[in-house]
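Comment thread on ticket #2218

A.B. wrote:
> Attaching the input chain for the structure job we discussed in standup.
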Amino acid sequence: MMDTQFWNALEDLAARHQIKIDKPRGSKHAQIANLTYPVDYGYLDGTRSKRGGGVELYMGTLGNLNVTGVISMLDLSDYGSTMKLLIGCSAQEMADAVAVEKRGGVAATLIVRNPG
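C.D. wrote:
> Ran it. Output below, let me know if you need it in another format.
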């Protein structure tokens, strides 16, 4: 069963804050060798996450600002958790983004808004 309140809250959050892309598609990760961002990566300006920065996100190429999914993660080294938004992402872009997050000691899963 889809929780519309959850998804509506995410839509509202994304609509109220400017998207800042600080790692465009094809950018190399500053600290992880051989990691290239397959999808634009950034954050929502004026928000904050548990890690101290803005709410993180991947921005796809569908050409809209709809929240298409989220990635939920657990860092097994320190048991910290986080969630990243997927905005305007195709199914392939969502799969590529979650693959980036599943690296060295991080458990990650994809939650799709309207799986079908």
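A.B. wrote:
> Thanks. Noting for the ticket: The chain has one domain: 4-112.
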